[in-house]
Structures are given as structure tokens and as C-alpha cells.
Design brief:
single chain, mainly beta, RNA Polymerase Alpha Subunit, Chain A, domain 2, eleven-stranded mixed sheet, six-stranded mixed sheet, elongated, YbbR family protein
Length: 349
């Protein structure tokens, strides 16, 4: 009798087990596992020595194929997997290491990783501070002018692989200003460049890190009408005795100026140079002379100085003179503060 009860209990247990197996079989047939591939999952180094930096990691992203129920495979993205490479105890140089994949969703399994190994190159880590340079590309609309642009940071910290950090001389904040007519303010991504202005590029993003990576750039723009006016050389003093001023050539002969008020431009007929001292000269001279715009006027589209050539020549004798000791003493030089344009100052008789 006892054996009969034991057999019945065994049959009941076996029936339950078979029912469970059958249930899983039915569910699997109705909802079978599927596979889906997530592309370009970033590989993250782990265990990196603080004194080292990753110069390159090839490839720096892998493709991961997951298997599992369809509802767990929907909308899979790179963020749903964590892929790491262990570089614990690895020193400077190149090494080939396997990757490890950890699914971020339950009931998923890793079917395949491509590739399974990555090549890591490590270098000593370096850090330094470099200046920020503002670079404006283009010109504002006609009659508009840029005034005192600013950058929110003057310096940034550059860190990463030594061979890259050593190349960085400064970082550039580049802003396009072509055709603008009003003040602009932008957050600009900073670009590291070498001493020649060429960008320093890293094959692996973390091989070269800027802190901060961006800067706020403000470019004030104001309305300033323009006008082209002739240049006059302001002469002071007089040539040596027996000499006079001849031709005066100025290059460029005209410059373009701007002013906030049109009234100022309307009253401006010419632009003088800084004083040119010709005291005691007995020969022609050529000098680079700065322009002297009046208050409220700025020179644009040209050099800050002009080239002034002043002909100094002997005074010519008066017609009919001779036989006596007298000679012509007239001179074309005026007193202090004389203004001369591109024409000639001729000697008197």
C-alpha cells in the first residue's frame, strides 16, 4: 500500500515537471528568442594608470549582437550595452586586449562581438595651460563695424597623451561674422592648434581633452558709415638754407574712414598724418608716417600708416641773375604745421 502511494506521488511530481516543460515549450514557440545587432558601441578603457593616457584605441567602437525575447530587443541603442577593455597594469606602448560586454537590459545575452579584440596605445599623461585666441572669419555688412569682441575665457587646460599635448600652442575660438548687422553671442567649440596654426587632431577623443571645451564669444556690431578721403602730410620745420620742397607723394593717396555720426564724415574733407619734421633737410626723404584721425573717426580697410616721399631740392636761381654774388633764396617750405597733399610745393623766385 505504501509503495502505491509513493508511486502516485512520483507520478504527480513528474506530471508537474512535464507541465512546466510543456508550458515553456509552448511559450517559446509562441514567442521565440530573436537577435539584433547594435552598431558602434564605444569601448571604454578601465583600470588605466593615472599617470598614463590613451593615445589611440583601434577600433574605438564595436558591434554587439544580442539575443533574447523580442520585447527586450526593441529600440536597442548603444547606450543599452557597456563595452570595456581592461588595461590594468599595462604600461606605455601598444597592447592588444579583449573586450567585455555587459548588457544593460535583463534577459539579453551576448551572441557576438565584432571585433572581439582592440589595440590600445598608451603614453605618459601630460597637462598644461594655453591661451585662447579669437578668430573672426569674414566681414560685417557695409557700414557696420565690429567693436571690441570678447571671449569668456582667456586660458584653457589641455591634458592627455604627451605627444599631442606638447604640440598644442594655443586654442582658437572661431566665429563667422560675414554679413552680420547686429551683435552676436555664441558658445563656440575650442580647437587646439600648433605654433603654425594647424589643428592638433586626436584619433581617440580622450587622447586630447580641453577644459573648458567651449567658450562664450560676444561680437558687438555698430552702425558706422564710411567715406573715402585724401591724405595730407603735415610738415613741420623748413629745409636747409638754399633748399626747398619739391613734389610730395603719399601712398596710398586716399583712405577709407568710419564714424558713428554722419555729421562728422560730412565735415571731414581730408585726413592728416602725424607731423613730419623736415628741419634742415638737404635731400629727398621717404618715411612711414602714422595717420592722425580726429576723435570719433577710425581708419578701415587700409594700413595704419602711409608712405610719404618729400622731394628736397636746391633753390633755383632767378632768371637773369649772374655775374654778382647774389642768388635766389626763395623756398617752397612753409612754416611749422604746413599741410601738403600729393602735389608739389615749388620754390619761389
Amino acid at each position: 500500500m505504501e509503495r502505491l502511494f509513493e508511486n502516485e506521488n512520483r507520478l504527480k511530481i513528474l506530471s508537474v515537471i512535464l507541465a512546466i516543460i510543456l508550458w515553456f515549450g509552448v511559450m517559446s514557440s509562441q514567442n521565440p528568442d530573436q537577435a539584433r545587432t547594435v552598431y558602434d558601441v564605444e569601448v571604454v578603457p578601465e583600470g588605466l594608470d593615472p599617470g598614463l593616457a590613451v593615445l589611440s584605441l583601434e577600433p574605438h567602437a564595436v558591434d554587439v549582437t544580442f539575443g533574447g525575447p523580442p520585447e527586450f530587443l526593441q529600440d536597442l541603442a548603444p547606450r543599452d550595452a557597456r563595452v570595456t577593455v581592461d588595461v590594468s597594469g599595462v604600461g606605455p606602448g601598444e597592447t592588444r586586449r579583449p573586450v567585455t560586454v555587459i548588457p544593460a537590459r535583463g534577459r539579453l545575452r551576448v551572441v557576438r562581438v565584432s571585433p572581439q579584440y582592440v589595440t590600445v596605445r598608451l603614453e605618459p599623461r601630460m597637462e598644461k595651460t594655453v591661451p585662447v585666441e579669437l578668430q573672426l572669419n569674414g566681414e560685417p555688412s557695409p557700414d557696420y563695424m565690429i567693436e571690441n569682441p570678447t571671449v569668456s575665457v582667456e586660458q584653457v587646460t589641455v591634458s592627455g597623451a604627451r605627444s599631442l599635448v606638447e604640440q598644442v600652442a594655443r586654442v582658437v575660438a572661431s566665429v563667422a561674422v560675414s554679413g552680420i548687422q547686429s551683435t552676436i553671442a555664441h558658445s563656440v567649440t575650442l580647437v587646439p592648434v600648433d605654433a603654425s596654426g594647424r589643428p592638433v587632431e586626436a584619433a581617440y577623443p580622450q587622447a586630447l581633452v580641453l577644459e573648458p571645451p567651449t567658450a562664450q564669444v560676444t561680437v558687438p556690431v555698430v552702425f558706422m558709415p564710411r567715406k573715402t578721403v585724401p591724405v595730407q602730410a603735415r610738415l613741420e620745420g623748413a629745409p636747409a638754407q638754399g633748399f626747398e620742397i619739391g613734389n610730395i607723394a603719399i601712398e596710398p593717396a586716399e583712405v577709407t574712414v568710419r564714424a558713428r555720426e554722419e555729421r562728422i564724415l560730412q565735415e571731414l574733407d581730408f585726413l592728416q598724418t602725424e607731423p613730419v619734421d623736415i628741419s634742415g633737410l638737404d635731400r629727398t626723404v621717404t618715411r612711414e608716417v602714422a595717420l592722425a584721425p580726429p576723435e570719433g573717426v577710425v581708419v578701415v580697410g587700409g594700413p595704419p600708416a602711409v608712405r610719404v616721399t618729400i622731394e628736397i631740392r636746391p633753390v633755383k636761381e632767378a632768371p637773369g641773375a649772374g655775374g654778382g654774388a647774389g642768388t635766389g633764396t626763395g623756398t617752397g617750405a612753409a612754416g611749422d604745421g604746413q599741410a601738403a597733399g600729393g602735389g608739389a610745393g615749388s620754390g619761389g623766385s
